[in-house]
Specification:
about 300 residues; five-stranded antiparallel sheet
C-alpha cells in the first residue's frame, strides 16, 4: 500500500517528536511562555544529578535574599568544623535590630537585648528572609568575604556575594553586586543535597528549615499544592530600581515527587517591568511546566 506524502510527513513528525529530548521540549515551552513578559528571566533545572536544562543562563541575576541559602551553608560549615552546636546562644542588642528594613525578629523583639540560638537566628533568615538576622550572622559569625570564599571552595564560580542587607538598603545599585547564574544556584543546591557542603545535624537543620519556608507561596510552590510533592526552597525579593523595574524576584529549590524522583530548579526574574503579582506568576508558570514534565518521567 502506498502512503500519501502528507501521511508520510505526519508519521515522520510524530517519530521525531517521540524521540525528542523531554528537556529540550521543556526548554522550548519555557522560552515560548516567557517571551510575552518585559523581564529578563533565567532558569536552570537539574534532574538525577546530571541532566540539566538552562534558559538565559549567561546573564548575572541579582540574588536578593536567595544568598541567605549560601550564607546558611557557610555558617553551618563553620559551626560543624569548629564543633559549635546549633543551639549555641548569642545576645542581640537593640542597635543590631535596625529600623526601616524587613525584620520579623525586630518586630517580635522591638527592644532587643535578647538571647537567641544560632539555629533560631538562621530560621529567621531561611524561612522569613529576615534582613537583620542576616546581617547579625555576617557581623558576628562569618563575614561576607568569608561566606563568598567558602562557596567558591565548593567549585562554584558563577556568583558573587559582596554586600550585606544594609549595603543594599542604602544603595539599591548594590543589589546587582550579589549575583548568580541560575545553574550556579542549582549546582550549589545539588552539592548541599549530596551532603558535600555540610552534613549530620547541620544538613538536617537546613533541609528541614527550607521545607518549612513560609515565603513565596505564589512562586515555585504554587502549582505543587495537593500533588504530594515536597518542596524546600529559598526566595529573594527586591525593590524597584530607578527605572521602576523590580530588581529581582526569585526562587530556588528542590522538589521531591511522590514517585521518589527529585529535581532542582532555579528561576530568577531580573529588571521586571511587570507588576509584583505578575512577576511571581512567571515563576509559578515555569514551576508548573517543569513539574508537568518531571512527573511523566
Amino acid at each position: 500500500m502506498k502512503l500519501k506524502s502528507s501521511t508520510v510527513l505526519l508519521l515522520l513528525f510524530v517519530s521525531i517528536v517521540a524521540k525528542a529530548d523531554p528537556l529540550e521540549l521543556l526548554r522550548d515551552e519555557i522560552l515560548h511562555s516567557i517571551a510575552k513578559y518585559d523581564s529578563k528571566i533565567g532558569v536552570a533545572v537539574m534532574v538525577n544529578d546530571t541532566d540539566t536544562l538552562t534558559v538565559n543562563n549567561s546573564d548575572k541575576y541579582p540574588m536578593m535574599s536567595v544568598f541567605k541559602f549560601h550564607q546558611a551553608l557557610a555558617v553551618c560549615h563553620l559551626l560543624q568544623t569548629k564543633g559549635i552546636p546549633l543551639d549555641s546562644v548569642i545576645n542581640i542588642s537593640k542597635n543590631e535590630l535596625r529600623e526601616n528594613t524587613y525584620s520579623p525578629l525586630r518586630d517580635r523583639f522591638p527592644e532587643g537585648n535578647i538571647s537567641i540560638s544560632l539555629s533560631e537566628l538562621m530560621e529567621y533568615t531561611l524561612q522569613l528572609s529576615d534582613n537583620n538576622a542576616c546581617d547579625i550572622l555576617f557581623n558576628r559569625i562569618l563575614s561576607i568575604k568569608d561566606t563568598d570564599r567558602y562557596i567558591r571552595s565548593l567549585d562554584i564560580d558563577d556568583f558573587s556575594i559582596e554586600m550585606d542587607e544594609n549595603d543594599m538598603h542604602e544603595n539599591l545599585d548594590n543589589c546587582y553586586k550579589n549575583w548568580t547564574t541560575p545553574m550556579a544556584a542549582v549546582r550549589l543546591m545539588n552539592l548541599f543535597l549530596e551532603r558535600d557542603a555540610v552534613s549530620d545535624e547541620y544538613y538536617d537543620f537546613i533541609k528541614r528549615t527550607m521545607t518549612e519556608c513560609t515565603t513565596g507561596t505564589a512562586r515555585l510552590p504554587y502549582p505543587l499544592k495537593n500533588t504530594g510533592a515536597v518542596i524546600g526552597h529559598k526566595t529573594g525579593t527586591g525593590d524597584k530600581n530607578s527605572d521602576g523595574r523590580y530588581i529581582g524576584i526569585n526562587d530556588i529549590g528542590f522538589i521531591d515527587l511522590p514517585n521518589g524522583s527529585r529535581y532542582l530548579i532555579a528561576v530568577f526574574v531580573k529588571d521586571s517591568a511587570e507588576d509584583y503579582e505578575t512577576t511571581e506568576k512567571i515563576i509559578a508558570e515555569i514551576s508548573s511546566m517543569v513539574y508537568n514534565c518531571m512527573k511523566k518521567q
